Amino acid sequence: MKYWLPPIAWMVLIFSASSDTHSYQHTSRFFEPLLRWLFPQMPPATVDAIHHFFRKTGHFTEYAVLALLLWRTIRQPQKGDPRKWRWDEAGLALSVVFLYAAGDELHQVFVNGRTALVSDVFIDTTGGATGLLLLWLAGKIFKRW
Length: 145
Prior knowledge:
Elements: H1 5-18, H2 23-38, H3 44-75, H4 87-109, H5 118-141
Helix pairs in contact: 1-3, 1-4, 2-3, 3-4, 3-5, 4-5
């Protein structure tokens, strides 16, 4: 159970964020004034584009973290774990990330003010894949597998 608690808690956090009917307005309330203060000459279209990029980077990152938490849950590593990297474990974690991202977007169909986007599922899954690839690369560099 100790391995399942972190990914479940993270999934609850993602779900609660996608239930927020005004999530775009919440981030724009802080992010856009900060950009305008830092760069007063920046055109509004550029501010909007940067805000959009910031939000999509958040999607990417939150699902990278989810993939790592799921991989840890699936692998259940122990201290000094001598096992080699297994792509099937990473693949299972990534499959769960994809299914959760798709389910999250489906959930947003039923939330007023939210829009379900296939592109968000792609961004989320790509974030998960990137997190797992970085983990694999770190393991290669530090000779863990």
